[in-house]
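Fold it.
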Amino acid sequence: MRKTIPFLVLLLVVFSLFLWIISPFIQPSAAATNASISVSEVIASGLQAPLDITHAGDGSGRLFVVEQPGRIRVIKQGALLSTPFLDITSLVLYGGERGLLGLAFHPNYEQNGYFYVNYTRQPDGATVLARYRVSSNPDVADASSATILLTISQPYANHNGGCIKFGQDGYLYIGMGDGGSGGDPQNYAQNKDSLLGKMLRIDVDHGNPYAIPADNPFVGQDGADEIWALGLRNPWRFSFDRLSGDLYIADVGQNAWEEVNFQPANASGGINYGWRCREGTHPYNSSPPCNDANFLATLTDPFTEYSHSEGYSVTGGYVYRGTRYPNLYGTYFFADYVNGKIWSIKKLSDSPLTWSTRTLELDADFNISSFGEGEDGELYIANYNQGKIHHLTDPSGPVDLAEALKGSQKTASSPWADTDEVITYTIELNNNTHTTFSNAVLTDTLPADLTYLAGSFSASNGSVDDSQAPQLRWSGTLPPGITTLRYQARVKSTAKGSQNNTASLTVNGLSALSLSSSVYVPRPKLNTSSADFVLPGTQPNQLQTPLLDSIDCDTCHSAPIYDRWRGSVMSQAGRDPLMWAALAASNNVVPNSGELCLRCHIPNGWFAGHSQDPSGGLMTAQELSNGISCQLCHRLVDPQPPLGTSDQASAIDALIRQNLTHPIPANAIGNAMLIVDPNDNRRGPFELAQSFNYHTAYRTDFLGQSGDAVTRSRLCGSCHNVFNPLLSWDASRNQYWPNSGTAQATAKSTPYYPIETTFSEWLQSDYATPEGVYAPQFAGEKPDGIVRACQDCHLSRATGSAADSGFNPFQRDCRTSGCLPTHDLLGANTWLPQLLQVETWRLNALGEKTYLDQNQQATQSFLRKAATLSVNLLEQGGSKLAR
């Protein structure tokens, strides 16, 4: 039977379209005088109807802007590229609320090149979800690579939703409107068999063309399997908090209320946000089931809403997680499309869930169609009708200058020099933002044993002043990119040892960074190169997937795993001031020998190829803070598994060993000669179910918890045997002697000069025997009290789970299901946790005080159990003697 739309509904449709048409001409009121944010900074203009902004997560720092007619544009290094990343205007039905509406890059985009778009197609206006792939040019997609994943018919021209995002679980979330018209006349939002008026959730990494996550709420029961949440009118823009994984859904209202909904990261699916029974928290429709009190009690209200006396169409935003504006950190920003108002609200606690008061931050003078998030956590706003992209900033600052200038460095033309030699110093100030910093001043004072060469001070921009030499001064602005300064100095005849000098930079009077360089006088007698320190195993730049930041592991793992590792000496190995002192001294006497230190202490950077500078100057802050990272150990391959053994990764490991360019000789253990899986195949003492899609986990003997102690301890021995590869045993001389040519470990196993032989000494101990040693004080919760492998003592055995409760972890009981290996990695170093809390140390870890203090206390307790002292008092001739 033909149905007619009630006249009131028809009026509402007309009114909604009227707002869309006239909104460019509705002038918002003036900006608040005491606003805590600013949107005055425009980073791009000349766009056509921009309505989505995102990044690729590939480290490029680019922003991608969706233009509604069907193009994706690229903002690269502060400039809008003329060539679109993708142009599918011929496929897109554009106009009103239709067009190219959403863009999301695959979490593994850097490796697979996949990205996804949501558009309304010609000629019928159906919603299409399609996958594309980047071409050989990283700034241009392959337009012929389209794969259609999902097509959804649209009954009307409006309420198409269009936003798509990947969650931290790796699944793709798709916001779908209720199909349009007004008032959801077909009640699609409450119909579990319809995909309209829903939040969908699919697995794009499995199935053909996609799979359904097993924990989607309607799998195996009535309702479409793709549905994650329901009861939405038009979720135009939603976002995930990059830190917590919480989901914020802004749902455009009907004729009275606009709302923003919230779903915590650990929530299960099936949440019903109430439309069309409710508009915001207010009754809208009383048709069944909206007249059922029991049903209404199951609905979830928005955490904030506003009436049409304040605005007409909500535009969802993001939680600010950038580093430049600490006053904004953790605040959720959202806006109204029609009048340009921007509000803020902040989650105050999780349990109970509480919020700050919604605050009007700014009345912008343009229509806000979308917010976007950069790779660095900075927020951007799409100015729809004026075709601009604005940066959301805090006008009071301060900017995190250390982050903004990351990658800046000071280098000398040579790390060594003889007297009367001329050294050229180069300072590179790397502004990796889109902002030009004004009022920048750099000062550099030469040490007493260097003489400045008059007139040699130059800069690529700004002004130099050498009138007060040996103090040099530069001033100017720092535009995006690199500003280069150079000067020369001659080594005096009195010079000896390290000649250290530091350049200091301020911006607007604020300390920004210090850059140091050191030259050692005289030049060393040895003429070693990096080739002398090439050792067997996986080499730099051979990993297909880089070693990830260990903060990624904190997403799921419990305190006994991540928190204990974070406080351990291993996690802080890249910040250890004693290591840096030893590295500098070693490089001064034996050129390039720092290579050996860096491969052990900062493996993430070493495998990334950042040890080309043996002083460690190319190591990034992330690599330094990771030390010996989670992924390093959990991607290790046993170089020499015992014959006849097999585990879950045996086939993969055999292929990796076979393809090594630098095979490890038999019984060569030490010097961080490691074999690392080139792909992100993780290993451990337990396996993970295949249904866990975040990462793999193979059970291997090398990282096992039981079995052969030598195999397990060999993992530790990979680093805890240290030899000098420049000296090997010469039987004819009956002594250690310098190698001729490069390190011979690349060819065969040679007795090198021993520096530290912890693993070799362990091999000769009772611990390495099948019987082990009964030491219950170290065995933790192990019921037999026996310790054998290094890990049995240094990763204390406990009961509990390795993941947070929200991930349904397996409980380890040390009896039937194995032990929980607490990642405290205890040893004898109680000093380092204190050193790392000295504010003046350039690599201090003041922000990790809780972890460090906990490790120090645990280490002290560990040492107290390491030995006992018995004293017997004897009396002899009236005197007491100790024995």
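The first strand starts at residue 38 and ends at 44.
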